[in-house]
Amino acid sequence: MGEEAGEVVIYVSEDRVFAEPVLQEFERRMGLRVKAVYDTEETKSTGLANRLLAEKNRPQADAFWSNEPVRTIMLKRNGVLAPYASPNAAVIPGEFKDPEGYWTGFAVRSRVIVYNTKLVKPTEAPQSMFDLTDARWKGQVAMADPRFGSTSFHAAVLFVVLGDERASKYFSDLRVNDIKIVDGNSVVRQMVSRGEVKIGWTDTDDVLVAKKAGEPVEMVYTDQQGLGVPILPNMVSLIKGGPHPKNGQKLIDYLLSPEVERMLAQSEAGQMPLHTGVEVPPYVRPVGSLKPMTFDYAAPAARVEAVVRRLQGILKL
């Protein structure tokens, strides 16, 4: 019966302002009604992942569009996802897709340092994540709560890449340097823009939106001579036993098309395409021009809960 209904249900943790035009275009092209359920900024991706877990025995969604990898991979581990190898996934680089077909990445963004251009000269802006522990930035750095969203992914990546001891010391040093822990990346960007702090950790899309609005901010892709920068793909996956599996596959095919990557690159989010040859505006860095941190996306996903517990102690969350 579900197929005849001509609809598809997708849970979306990508910001609604960026995702909605993409899904509306799919509706126009395919004549299918998209029922989208969006997450909130504070519980970004965590809320929907918990809902999908709770609905595992009676799935309500056909697909999950996550704006970070951790929850998608957790859902795979918990048997919520079904494998689906979209034809459009074939050209996407191997590091951005699950070897068993349970998820595929697209339209990536990066973690960056954002700084206030009225308070920090480009030549003085931190070039490495380790610069944030320097006494000159004491009380002048903001970071979103690492229990949620892209910041929890970032924290787990650092524990994977640096090892427990170095990562624990890094976050301990940030706390000693009086880092401000706030509710979400957008709050980090607002604080930097208003000059309440000089610098912060956030995502490329937050900075690009702020710059377009005329805010006095710029960003640094960190550690380009060293560790590299964490890259966050959007991820899309099929829900096991969802009500409209064929329509779910059609929607996944569409999300993994060069056309959608072009839309997300040209949106204010400025997300970087994984398909080659996609036209991007001048403010979007080609992903190939960045030195990424190297890790398997499954590794931080497996560690994130333990890392969050560790950070609750270190950062007194």
Brief rundown of the structure:
The protein is of the alpha/beta class. The protein has 10 helices and 10 strands.
* End-to-end C-alpha gap: 48 Å
Helical content (DSSP H or I, runs of 4+): 25-40%
Fourth-level CATH superfamily of the largest domain: Periplasmic binding protein-like II
- The run of helices and strands is EHEHEHEEEHHEHEHEEHHH
Number of separate strands: 10
Regions with little confidence, pLDDT below 50 for 5+ residues:
none
Number of separate helices: 10
Average pLDDT taken over every residue: 95
Q: Can you tell me the CATH class of the largest domain?
A: Alpha Beta
CATH topology of the largest domain: D-Maltodextrin-Binding Protein, domain 2
Strand content range: 15-25%
Architecture of the largest domain in CATH?
A: 3-Layer(aba) Sandwich
User: How many domain units?
Assistant: 2
**Biggest sheet descriptor:** 10 strands, mixed
Which geometry do the CA atoms define?
Answer: globular
| Radius of gyration from the alpha-carbon trace, in angstroms | 19 Å
Structural class based on helices, strands and sheet pairing:
alpha/beta
Describe this structure in words.
The structure is a single chain. This protein is of the alpha/beta class. The chain has two domains: 3-108 and 232-284, Periplasmic binding protein-like II (D-Maltodextrin-Binding Protein, domain 2), CATH 3.40.190.10; 109-229 and 300-314, 3-Layer(aba) Sandwich (D-Maltodextrin-Binding Protein, domain 2), CATH 3.40.190. It has ten helices and ten strands. The chain has helices at residues 16-30, 46-54, 69-77, 149-162, 164-176, 185-194, 204-212, 245-255, 258-266, 298-314, and strands at residues 7-12, 33-38, 63-66, 81-82, 104-116, 141-144, 180-182, 199-203, 217-220, 231-239. It is globular, with a radius of gyration of 19 Å.
